[in-house]
Amino acid sequence: MRLLLPHIKNAAKAAEPSSSTVLNALTQKVKLLQEENDELYQILRVKETGKLKEEVRSLRKVVHKLEGSLRGTSLAPTQEVMHDRKPVESHQVIDSLS
């Protein structure tokens, strides 16, 4: 859309007065389509972000279960929340075994 607008403006400068109405309509349509495109892009971006957040939640659950398996017990829910703020204990276990 942004590529078309300069061409339409250049054509409007060279056009006869009778065709300026058509060019104005085209310019308005290009602007409207660009706005719609921007809105759709924003919706798509939000949707993709939501999918990624859900995937992160799923992966955190897997990590939680794996850490519990390494210790032989499961973590309390509060420990899972704190997981983001402290070093991952499973890494410490693996490092100590190495």
From TrEMBL:
GO cellular component, one term: nucleus
Protein name: Uncharacterized protein
Subcellular location: Nucleus
InterPro entries: WTAP
Biological processes per GO annotation: mRNA modification; mRNA processing; regulation of alternative mRNA splicing, via spliceosome; RNA splicing
Family, per entry: Belongs to the fl(2)d family.
Alphabetized UniProt keyword annotations: mRNA processing, mRNA splicing, Nucleus
Positions of the UniProt region annotated as Disordered: 74-98
